[in-house]
């Protein structure tokens, strides 16, 4: 019971972390699962289950509120049930994955329910904004977090409670060894799904050859993943530098706004700090289908509006102005928009503040989501998960630190930069800086992926064939391992083929990720059970 | 020649579009179509950067009609009126996907799906379009099933 409660509290935090501060990206399965392992007293199980789900979920993030599998709950519930299961570690991990993945998929059905409830709440916030009632606005903002949390925490609690009984142990007492072998293989194939989905989001036709750099680095030169990443950084810098020599896009001189601007700064340091802090801690806790992040933006702007508009009517109009539909990438992009909105409100140009917001939110969502989800997160979480799979605590710790520090710094910097630059911000952005950063990150992503695929997707065949040769004039039949022949041809051929196959299913056959995961699971369990394939070959003598 | 894929999306070029749709449709070029956006320097410069290397033009309705748009082009209009004007001007879309249409302040709208607000006038426009033989659907992500938009309007009594 105590463990179930602790897991529920953890699920609440994970949900909040992914809507507000993104301190450690706790909703990612690597983090959610690892800590769940600690709570249940089975740290190793948490690491293994969290890391496997993480790799299967690599390319999977929510864009503009599309519902995705709930890997957070899958990792926590999977770990909890695994901890209650009978057998050795590999049998327990098999149970955890067997429950965690379907749970992630099934529980995603609850996600729209939570978002629906917050949609109803946002209309209450509208009337508070019209009355200039900041307290009511803030209350609705924070209350909106409850439905989000409830649809994740309640299933977690129920499953964790079930896991604490002896029932799971009884059910799992007689798991056949073949099933465990099969699940182990399926688990080591699942990263191919993550990599393939990721490739499906990247410009494969344009940059495919960069994959070769990473592949050769790992498969032939036996570089560690970090070494591959360093080569990737160098190649990315090369691309960006060469690109810079091309004639830059002409940037028209900033036009004078038709609105009269008042120059004297009226905002105090504390106002700015308050606004940033509100955005940092709670940017999208009231996310809903109709207005998305609007209430979070209005809530963040409130301290600034209070200072700038002593007249209640103007203040209420300001709140309503920032209650309009808004959605962007909250880690890269959002703080820039917030900073520029603050600067333009202070300059006495509220109309520009509103129109600049609208102009920036789409493009910055496109660039920010790509940088954050597809590139930076994929790289650090893949590295973290690959260490976690070896039972190393450095894995989740590395990912958490690489989220905590850079994202906090870059958000702070964006806000300050955009506030200082004010109207000139648009000119900076238009000069193509963002596009260059995005391209550099894409190049790095491809090089690193080329190394990740062979190092993390683990599959070899254990099949042999009989070959008759003549030894000293005598016909002799000997068993030859097919894997040895394959290795002579190209090292790591099977992981590459599996990833390519999954990519074709996703990108060409347009199969839904849920079905792809199901196919890989079933195929993995079947082939592993039959004993034709395994994550690693038998130890060579 | 097959016509362009048209998407109505008030957020224009963003993650759902760049990451999911352009790849799935094999689009080689984006046209963002809205008179106000085309007249705004800031958006005209920023939107192509958001398209991650895909050639992108930000055009008024009139200029969009002058641009040849085949199956490898995706046209994103900010509002349904932009699309209706394009069709009046002679554009024959392959399919119209109603993506995101946040309620506009001051309008009398009904939420048809979670992310699509429709007014009575817009509903009439969509129906006219469908009656003219243009498939009108809503499909958030490529892996979702497309839903017939007119059937959704029927259900909401629009």
Structural features:
heterodimer; A: 541 residues; mainly alpha; two-stranded antiparallel sheet; 24 helices; B: 158 residues; Fructose Permease; seven-stranded mixed sheet; 7 helices
Write up what this structure looks like.
The complex is a heterodimer of chains A (541) and B (158). The longest helix of chain A has 40 residues. In chain A, the strands form two sheets. Chain A has a two-stranded antiparallel sheet with strand order 1-4. Chain A has a two-stranded antiparallel sheet with strand order 2-3. Chain A is mostly helical. In chain A, 71% of the residues lie in helices and 4% in strands. The radius of gyration of chain A is 26 Å and the shape is globular. In chain A, helix 10 packs antiparallel against helix 21 and helix 10 runs antiparallel to helix 24. Chain A has a domain of 75 residues. Chain B has 158 residues and is of the alpha/beta class. In chain B, 37% of the residues lie in helices and 25% in strands. In chain B, the strands form two sheets. A seven-stranded mixed β-sheet of chain B has the order 3-2-4-1-5-8-9. In chain B, a hairpin with an 8-residue loop joins strand 8 and strand 9. Chain B is globular, with a radius of gyration of 15 Å. The model of chain B has no long low-confidence stretch (mean pLDDT 87). The chains are: A mainly alpha (541), B alpha/beta (158). The interface between A and B is large, with 53 and 37 residues.
């Amino acid at each position: 019971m105590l463990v179930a409660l602790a897991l529920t509290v953890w699920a609440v935090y994970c949900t909040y972390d992914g809507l507000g501060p993104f301190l450690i990206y706790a909703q990612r399965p690597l983090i959610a699962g690892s800590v769940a392992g600690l709570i249940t007293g089975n740290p190793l199980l948490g690491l293994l289950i969290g890391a496997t789900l993480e790799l299967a979920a690599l390319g999977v993030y929510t864009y503009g509120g599309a519902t995705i599998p709930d890997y957070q709950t899958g990792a926590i519930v999977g770990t909890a049930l695994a901890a209650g299961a009978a057998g050795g570690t590999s049998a327990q991990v098999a149970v955890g994955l067997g429950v965690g993945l379907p749970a992630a998929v099934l529980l995603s059905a609850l996600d729209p329910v939570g978002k629906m409830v917050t949609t109803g709440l946002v209309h209450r916030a509208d009337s508070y904004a019209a009355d200039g009632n900041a307290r009511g606005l803030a209350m609705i903002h924070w209350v909106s977090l409850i439905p989000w949390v409830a649809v994740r925490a309640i299933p977690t609690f129920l499953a964790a409670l079930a896991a604490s009984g002896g029932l799971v142990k009884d059910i799992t007492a007689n798991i056949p060894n073949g099933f465990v072998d099969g699940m182990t293989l399926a688990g080591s194939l699942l990263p191919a799904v993550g990599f393939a989905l990721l490739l499906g989001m990247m410009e494969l036709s344009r940059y495919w050859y960069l994959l070769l750099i990473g592949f050769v680095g790992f498969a032939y030169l036996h570089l560690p993943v970090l070494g591959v990443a360093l080569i990737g950084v160098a190649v990315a810098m090369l691309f960006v530098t060469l690109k810079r020599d091309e004639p830059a896009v002409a940037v028209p001189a900033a036009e004078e706004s038709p609105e009269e601007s008042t120059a004297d700064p009226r905002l105090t340091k504390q106002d700015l700090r308050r606004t940033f802090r509100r955005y940092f801690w709670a940017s999208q806790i009231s996310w809903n289908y109709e207005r998305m992040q609007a209430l979070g933006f209005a809530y963040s702007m409130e301290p600034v509006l209070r200072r700038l508009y002593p007249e209640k009517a103007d203040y209420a109009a300001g709140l309503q102005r920032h209650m309009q539909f808004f959605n962007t990438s909250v880690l890269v992009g959002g703080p820039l928009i917030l900073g520029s909105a603050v600067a333009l409100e202070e300059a006495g140009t509220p109309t520009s503040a509103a129109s600049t917001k609208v102009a920036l939110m789409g493009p910055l969502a496109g660039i920010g989501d790509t940088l954050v989800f597809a590139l930076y997160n994929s790289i650090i979480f893949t590295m973290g998960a690959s260490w976690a799979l070896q039972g190393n605590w450095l894995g989740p710790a590395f990912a958490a630190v690489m989220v905590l520090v850079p994202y906090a710094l870059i958000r702070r910097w964006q806000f300050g930069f955009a506030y200082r630059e004010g109207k000139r911000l648009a000119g900076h952005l238009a000069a193509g800086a963002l596009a260059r950063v995005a391209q550099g990150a894409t190049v790095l992503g491809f090089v690193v992926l080329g190394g990740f695929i062979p190092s993390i997707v683990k599959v070899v065949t254990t099949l042999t064939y009989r070959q008759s040769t003549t030894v000293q004039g005598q016909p002799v039949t000997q068993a030859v391992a097919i894997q040895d022949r394959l290795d002579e041809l190209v090292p790591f051929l099977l992981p590459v083929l599996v990833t390519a196959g999954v990519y074709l299913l996703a990108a060409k056959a347009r199969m839904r990720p849920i079905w792809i995961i199901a196919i890989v699971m079933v195929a993995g369990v079947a082939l592993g059970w039959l004993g034709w394939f395994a994550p690693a070959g038998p130890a060579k003598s | 020649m097959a016509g362009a894929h048209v998407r109505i999306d008030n957020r224009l070029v963003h993650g759902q579009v760049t990451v999911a749709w352009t790849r799935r449709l094999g689009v080689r070029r984006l046209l963002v179509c809205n008179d106000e956006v085309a007249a705004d320097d800031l958006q005209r410069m920023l939107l192509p950067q958001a398209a991650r290397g895909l050639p992108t033009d930000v055009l008024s309705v009139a200029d969009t009609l002058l641009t040849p748009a085949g199956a490898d082009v995706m046209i994103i209009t900010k509002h349904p009126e932009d699309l209706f004007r394009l069709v009046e001007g002679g554009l024959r879309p392959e399919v119209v996907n109603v993506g995101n249409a946040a309620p506009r302040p001051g309008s009398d709208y009904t939420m048809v799906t979670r992310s699509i607000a429709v007014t009575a006038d817009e509903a009439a426009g969509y129906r006219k379009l469908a009656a003219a033989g243009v498939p009108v659907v809503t499909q958030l992500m490529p892996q979702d099933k497309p839903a017939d938009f007119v059937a959704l309007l029927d259900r909401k009594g629009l």
